[in-house]
Amino acid sequence: MTLPNGLTPETARAAAERAYELDRRHVFHSWSAQAHLDPMTISAAQGCYVWDGEGNRLLDFSSQMVNTNIGHQHPKVVAAVQQQAAKLCTVAPPHVNDARSEAARLIAERTPGELNKIFFTNGGAEAIEHAVRLARLHTGRYKVLTRYRSYHGGTETAINLTGDPRRWPNDHGNSGVVHFFGPFLYRTQFHATNETEEAERALAHLEQTIVFEGPSTIAAIVLESIPGTAGIMIPPPGYMAGVRALCDKYGILFIADEVMSGFGRTGKWFAIEHFEGVVPDLLTFAKGVNSGYVPLGGVAISPAVAATFDDRPYPGGLTYSGHPLATAAAVATINAMADEHLIENAAEIGDRVLRPGLRELAAHHPSIGEVRGTGVFWALELVRDRATREPLAPYGGTSPAMTEVVAAARAAGLLMFVNFNRLHVVPPCIVGEAEAKEGLAILDRVLTVADQHTS
Ligand SMILES: Cc1ncc(COP(=O)(O)O)c(C=O)c1O
Fold this sequence. Notes:
The protein is an alpha/beta fold. Helix content is about 40%, strand content about 15%. It has helices at about 10-25, 65, 75-85, 100-110, 125-140, 155-160, 195-215, 240-250, 305, 325-340, 340-365, 400-410, 435-450, and strands at about 40-45, 50, 55-60, 115-120, 145, 175-180, 220-225, 255, 280-285, 295-300, 370-375, 375-385, 390, 415-420, 420-425. Helix 4 packs across helix 10 (about 325-340), helix 7 runs parallel beside helix 8 and helix 11 (about 340-365) runs parallel beside helix 13 (about 435-450). The longest helix is centred in the C-terminal third of the chain and has 23 residues, at about 340-365. Pyridoxal-5'-phosphate (PLP) binds near residues 65, 257 and 260.
């Protein structure tokens, strides 16, 4: 049987072998000790599935880096990139380009409030860099506050904002970032017993941090609307509105990082819509904006912040800001997501299939400490002991148990997003009921491996 891209299993295998050999010789991979890598080759992809170098089909419940919200090889997005390439491949940022203009309109139409000006970048980390720069220049202040248990990207400011151990080797104490604890009831820092207490106490802790750091020194608070890589912890009711109120009280800008949570992932265009009435001053996006078919990110900017640069030049730019191939892919992606009701599908599959299905798994797998999420954005917190909540891998690391679980998933044909002791169930927004159930059935088998490591 040929692969969806027309390769025969034999040609695919030969190409994969060559690609693997060259990769190991010449490619330097992200976040990794290079000598210890054994990366998986992907030869083809279609919809919710990928094919590895041996021609095995796997259900892609990782959406790669949680970015293929529209699934792999969506024909309308592929065609849009092809047509744009034939029409006009590249244009410098100072010139007007129809793909960029239309992408900006479609994004501005969907962002909350009046975030109507879009600055395009090549990805999420650059979006964060520019959001922070905009905030610092607008307020004339330098410090930026963000939570532990967060991820904001790999560039200098973004990695210093990041509240996970990948920051440590990049943090020289001079970034101007201060971390605080956000709400996370399952591992509460506030001895809370319910969500109301968690929200109230987390807000009191944040206000204390602001007061002790000096409100007049703080440019912005940066928060993922729903933290992704760090564990898909949905902020409890009242928390995000409380952060907005604190920002207003102290003249601080609110930056919502929607790089992972945006464009349908949570069953809404943006996760911030789950918190009624909360509108950030700046909103960063990437990934789902065009499902990563061509690199693209950006910042949506409020009228007040934009006005700061009406008569004063904004000191920042990129050769590929609003690149035609990337923005044409965004136009096609956003239109297809709207036409095919993919946001609604993500919400419905989350409510009708994934939430009950994952809870059912938790009912008979002692290794599941907690199930959290919404839409097609779910985390399983794996533990050795439900009573003590001891994680199956330590914070910031992995364990033989987690390695076994991930290997079992892959052998059973399921690709997952994994972080420390968590499995993230993050299929594309196009996922159908049958595929969601297929993934849950594989997980059911895989979790018996995790159960063997419980006490
Ligand atoms: C919330 C969040 N912000 C920023 C980034 C960085 O985006 P990129 O990898 O495109 O630079 C990520 C990437 O995973 C993310 O999840």
